[in-house]
Amino acid sequence: MRDVSYVKKLPDQAEQEVDIMKIIITQKEALDRHIWDKLILMFGLQDKEDDVWENEQFILTEEQARELGLI
Asked: Residue 1 in 3-state DSSP?
């Protein structure tokens, strides 16, 4: 998903629309791209008790996506 819009109120300014980017990735896609280990650390899923489905989606900020080399 790209270019999600929301309204952000800025101090002493009128409300304005700001475009942000979010990246959605599944466990399978992360495994295919060899970034699954980094992704589970980002989301705090280190415990074996944390079951994750192959099609489970993770929503990344633009900064997180850059850190993982997706953009």
From this structure: coil
pLDDT over 50 at 3, yes or no: no
DSSP one-letter string for 12-49: TS--EEEEE-EEEEEHHHHHHTT-HHHHHHHTT--STT
The total domain count for the chain is 1
Q: List, for residues 51-61, the tens digit of each pLDDT value.
A: 778 888 999 99
Lookup result for tokens 């699954």: 36
The rounded distance, in Å, linking the Cα atoms of 66 and 70 is: 6
Domain that holds residue 40: 4-67
Angstrom distance (rounded) from CA 14 to CA 68: 35
d(CA 37, CA 34): 8
Query: Residue type for 3, please?
Result: D
